[in-house]
Every structure is written in structure tokens, then in C-alpha cells.
Amino acid sequence: MTNTPARTPARVCFELRIDPARIDDYIARHTPVRAEMLAEIAAAGRRNYSLFLAPGGRLIGYYETDDDDAAQAYLAASPIAAAWEAEMAPFFVGLDGRPDQAATPLTEIFHLADQLAASTGGSASDDERDAS
Predict the structure, then answer these.
(1) Which of 56, 63, 95, 114 is the most buried (most CB within 10 A)?
(2) Could you give a GO molecular-function term held by this entry (predicted)?
(3) What is the pTM of this model?
(4) What single DSSP character describes residue 22?
């Protein structure tokens, strides 16, 4: 049996802007998201997915995946995701393209587990990764 090192998942964070006049309806569409769309997100390989809404319509999203390019390609080819994104597109301002494909990516500059591991010369434990 080959002992392969654990692969660190990609942590992806992005920003979108929601039309402030449509925030309540946007929230309602996510409370809850349709089951078939939830299944597509999971099938794409995204997990630990969250959306955070700030005043004025600033939306921050976060998820983890083992292969973000593959996850993006899966959702780009999914008729279920295409229908959902077409339905969601009118909620966003300053967006050119599908929300799931055109969101502004944010650059990670700090991650506790990674820095703890680097400072001790070890690797982050599952508990440290889960705490972040």
C-alpha cells in the first residue's frame, strides 16, 4: 500500500454585489436553495460552502474543493446550474457573465492552520484545519 500525502483543499473566496433593492428576495431564494442545485454543487466537488452578506449588498462566498478548475467546468456544463445562475443573474450589479463564473476572486493572505504548521515545521492536523 502506497502512503500518499493528504492533499490540501483549495480554499476559494469570492465577492459579488447584489442590487440593494433586491436583497430580501435574494435571501429568500437561498432559504433554502433548491435540492437539485445543492446536489450539483456537491457533485462538482465543492464543500464547506458559505455565503456572507454585508450591508449594501456586498456578498462574500467561500468554499473548499480539491480541484477548482474541475468544479468550475462541471458547473459551467450543468443545465441545472445554468438555469439557477440565469435566475440569479438579475440580482447582481456590475457583473459580466454568469454569477458562478464571473465573481471576483479574493486572494487569501492568512490561514491559521497553514501558518501554525509552518511555524512548527509540521503539517496542519485535521483539528487545526477544522478550526480555521
Answers:
(1) 63
(2) racemase and epimerase activity, acting on carbohydrates and derivatives
(3) 0.83
(4) G
Is residue 113 one of the residues assigned to a domain? no
Number of domains in the chain: 1
Confidence bin at 102 (pLDDT 50/70/90):
confident
Supply the DSSP string of 37-94, one letter for each residue: HHHHHHHTT-EEEEEEE-GGGEEEEEEEES-HHHHHHHHHH-HHHHHHHHHHGGGBSS
- Compute the distance between CA of residue 43 and CA of residue 47 in angstroms, rounded to an integer: 10
Contact 82, 98 (CB under 8 A): yes
Cell 464571473 found at: 102
Q: What is the pLDDT of residue 97?
A: 83
- Domain CATH number, residue 38: 3.30.70.100
Could you tell me how far CA 59 lies from the centroid of its own chain?
A: 11
* Phi–psi pair at 26, nearest 5 degrees: -60, -45
Distances (CA, A) of 57 to 19, 50, 51, 92, 118: 6, 16, 12, 9, 36
Domain carrying residue 16:
10-107
